[in-house]
């Protein structure tokens, strides 16, 4: 076998054979395993260092060893080791999270990382990723309030709030609010609002974990003002209204508005907290039922809670807006330090608020006619049927509100190779077909999507040629 230039450079000499240590009897010199490149030679090879610049030495060594093992087992020739190592490095990004084209039509998809960030937010995160003045006044050289920029942006976007605090996520915001304001007292909550937010996480359990006691009032479908006023007393720490963001109770129902609760809460000197979830800063015409932060504050809530990565369209964050003294009380609580937001979050949140509308807003407002044109253009490229398909807000709010649109119906068998392709594409299976909805696929990614479908079809053809139908990429 003839070896090419770089492989010759790498091929182990007699000391390399010693390193292998397990040459079989019967002629060491004829053993092809002697020609397997040595680990240290591979690690120093310019092509390996260039390709593996984002990987640490431990990971590179692991990749190299795995390829050498295949050569030792005779699965590849020693001369192929370098190229195989380079290929393995190429397939191995520094982090295992892979980009996904979300073709489900579900805008805030928790399993797919909720809100995709705006270009402005991505850029801001990159700029904040080194040393940055997150808690430092460059003018005076003194320590400063952490995340002042994100706070100002929130107050500008929601003028009804006197002050703001950003924490790790919505659940952390609720935890901090109930721990700091509820204290050792009771938190009054309607039985219709004791919700599970997903993957088995239940808000009542979260609240109870702070040591606060939950005082349930009303019934599952109906709670009246008198239920709250009867429960208010010396033991009350706070009254909490939770928006049932992921389900709806319809039929014979009633709930008490924030505005109605303010009077009794003020009289008793008890804070009124509203957990709204979605993070809409103001009313949203596409989602008339979805409560917004500004309106809840105007109606008299003392504190409102939301997530940053739902309809606000920003990074994972918990947003607390409300009265000065209440935000100060939260910021002073020891738990605030445990749930504080990091500099990347603060940078991305500020840029989301001050920049152009984020992708979530674009997807929410996507025009059905325009979606149809895009879907038909895709069908021209890759085939398939254009069918009506409703998008959804998803876990971020707007429960059960259909967002009229279109999808491309393709053969169901494409689902698995598309999911495991590069980029990964996730659609919806319905009635034996795979539906690809372009609502949440950026216009600029449409060519990539078409390419991914072609590549998935090619993989299916290869699989049927090699006579098995499973997915063998993983
Ligand atoms: C989503 C949601 C939460 C939890 O927020 P995370 O940011 O997911 O931690 C809490 N309350 C409501 C009403 C929600 O919709």
TrEMBL record:
Residues 1-49 are annotated as: Disordered. GO terms for molecular function: L-seryl-tRNA(Sec) selenium transferase activity. One of its GO terms (biological process) is selenocysteine incorporation. It holds the Pfam family Se-cys_synth_N. InterPro entries: PyrdxlP-dep_Trfase, PyrdxlP-dep_Trfase_major, SelA-like, SelA_trans, SelA_trans_N_dom. Residues 28-47 have a biased composition (Basic and acidic residues). Keywords: Cytoplasm, Protein biosynthesis, Pyridoxal phosphate, Selenium, Transferase. Its cofactor is pyridoxal 5'-phosphate. The keyword Transferase applies. One of its GO terms (cellular component) is cytoplasm. Residues 33-72 form the L-seryl-tRNA selenium transferase N-terminal domain. Its EC number is 2.9.1.1. It is found in: Cytoplasm. The modification N6-(pyridoxal phosphate)lysine is found at residue 310. Pathway: Aminoacyl-tRNA biosynthesis; selenocysteinyl-tRNA(Sec) biosynthesis; selenocysteinyl-tRNA(Sec) from L-seryl-tRNA(Sec) (bacterial route): step 1/1. Its main location: cytoplasm. PANTHER family: L-SERYL-TRNA(SEC) SELENIUM TRANSFERASE (PTHR32328). This is L-seryl-tRNA(Sec) selenium transferase.
């Amino acid at each position: 076998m003839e070896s090419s230039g770089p492989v010759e450079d790498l091929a182990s000499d007699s000391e390399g054979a010693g390193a292998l240590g397990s040459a079989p009897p019967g002629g060491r010199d004829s053993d092809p395993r002697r020609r397997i490149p040595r680990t240290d030679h591979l690690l120093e090879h310019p092509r390996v260092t260039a390709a593996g610049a984002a990987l640490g030495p431990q990971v590179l060594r692991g990749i190299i060893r795995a390829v050498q093992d295949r050569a030792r087992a005779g699965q590849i020739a020693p001369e192929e080791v370098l190229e195989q190592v380079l290929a393995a490095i190429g397939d191995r990004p520094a982090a295992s999270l892979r980009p996904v084209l979300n073709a489900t039509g579900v805008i805030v998809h928790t399993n797919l990382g909720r809100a995709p960030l705006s270009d402005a937010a991505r850029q801001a995160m990159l700029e904040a990723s080194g040393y940055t003045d997150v808690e430092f006044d460059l003018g005076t050289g003194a320590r400063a309030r952490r995340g002042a920029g994100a706070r100002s942006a929130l107050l500008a976007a929601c003028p009804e709030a006197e002050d703001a605090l950003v924490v790790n996520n919505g659940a952390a915001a609720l935890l901090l609010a109930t721990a700091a304001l509820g204290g050792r007292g009771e938190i009054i909550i309607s039985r219709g609002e004791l919700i599970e937010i997903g993957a088995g996480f239940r808000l009542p359990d979260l609240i109870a974990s702070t040591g606060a006691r939950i005082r349930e009032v009303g019934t599952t479908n109906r709670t009246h003002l008198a239920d709250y006023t009867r429960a208010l007393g010396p033991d009350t720490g706070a009254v909490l209204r939770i928006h049932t963001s992921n389900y709806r109770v319809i039929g014979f129902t009633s709930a008490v508005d924030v505005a109605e609760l303010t009077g009794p809460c003020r009289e008793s000197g008890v804070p009124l907290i509203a957990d709204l979830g979605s993070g809409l800063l103001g009313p949203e015409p596409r989602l008339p039922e979805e409560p917004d932060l500004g309106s809840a504050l105007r109606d008299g809530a003392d504190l409102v809670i939301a997530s940053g990565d739902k309809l606000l369209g920003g990074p994972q964050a918990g947003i607390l807006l409300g009265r000065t003294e209440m935000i100060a009380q939260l910021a002073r609580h020891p738990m605030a330090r445990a749930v504080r937001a990091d500099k990347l979050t603060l940078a991305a949140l500020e840029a989301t608020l001050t920049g152009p509308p984020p992708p979530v807003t674009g997807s929410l407002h996507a025009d059905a006619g325009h979606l149809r044109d895009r879907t038909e253009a895709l069908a021209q490229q890759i085939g398939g049927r254009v069918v009506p398909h409703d998008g959804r807000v998803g876990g971020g709010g707007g429960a059960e509100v259909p967002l009229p649109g279109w999808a491309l119906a393709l053969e169901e068998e494409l689902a698995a190779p598309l999911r495991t392709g590069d980029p990964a594409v996730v659609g919806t299976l319905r009635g034996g077909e795979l539906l690809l909805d372009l609502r949440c696929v950026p216009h600029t990614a449409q060519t990539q999507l078409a390419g991914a479908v072609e590549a998935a079809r090619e993989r299916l053809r290869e699989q049927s040629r090699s006579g098995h139908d499973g997915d063998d990429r993983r």
